[in-house]
Design goal:
The protein is 42% helix and 11% strand. The protein is of the alpha/beta class and 212 residues long. It has 2 domains: 138 residues, Rossmann fold; 64 residues. A 6-stranded parallel β-sheet has the order 3-2-1-4-5-6, covered by helices on one side. The longest helix has 19 residues. 36% of the residues are buried.
């Protein structure tokens, strides 16, 4: 077996949360009369790994107003997450097929409180050795730090680990950490370029046959 560990991204790979995050972000900016297109969200958040509230700062809104908008968005996102099980189709079956045969962890940019709300209903966390959330590291994706920390926590070498990502920023983070990265494009990222990906997947169902 080539890979001994899989590091999974969370949002857009295991759970369908990005539309809810976009909705909460749009509603937050609308409070100050600003619009947010889906392409802006993809370019700023999923590709560059920046905050969508940079748009408010660039408009000249004071820092305390931007901070209030961020807090409002985070609370609204938490409320939206409480409403449904957001597990993506096929995820549980794939994790069941891999469990006990290859070790796995989650490496996400989600904040811990949102992550915990997400997984109250999914039942997925039993498949993973550990989970890293935004509070566990200083620099978020596209920086390499989250995946370098995952390597240290797993006690494995880069060549032994595989990353599953859905976004350009996640791909950059994985490759900067020296890891093999397969990309599973999501609803918002299907039109993005993934030239540096080691493989672009059409479905999560492909993974067990490829790694076992």
């Amino acid at each position: 077996m080539k890979f001994q560990y899989i590091f999974w991204d969370n949002d857009g790979v295991l759970v369908d949360t990005e539309p809810l995050y976009l909705q909460a972000s749009r509603e937050a900016l609308a409070r100050v009369g600003m619009a947010l297109s889906e392409q802006q969200f993809v370019d700023i958040s999923l590709t560059a790994g920046r905050s969508i509230f940079d748009l408010a700062s660039e408009r000249g809104l004071p820092d305390n107003t931007v901070a209030d908008l961020r807090s409002w968005r985070n609370a609204r996102y938490a409320d939206l997450l409480e409403t449904e099980d957001v597990t993506l189709k096929g995820v549980k079956e794939v994790l069941e097929a891999l469990h006990g045969k290859i070790r796995m962890a989650i490496v996400t940019s989600s904040h811990k409180n949102h992550f915990e709300i997400i997984h109250r209903r999914t039942g997925l966390l039993t498949f993973f050795d550990f989970c890293l959330t935004r509070e566990d590291y200083t620099l978020s994706k596209p920086a390499a730090e989250p995946y370098l920390l995952a390597l240290r926590r797993s006690r494995h070498q880069a060549e032994q680990a595989l990353v599953i990502e859905d976004s350009p920023r996640g791909l950059r983070a994985a490759k900067s950490a020296g890891l093999t990265c397969w990309v599973l494009p999501g609803q918002q990222t299907r039109g993005e370029g993934f030239a540096r990906a080691d493989r672009v997947l059409r479905s999560i169902d492909e993974i067990p046959e490829l790694v076992l």
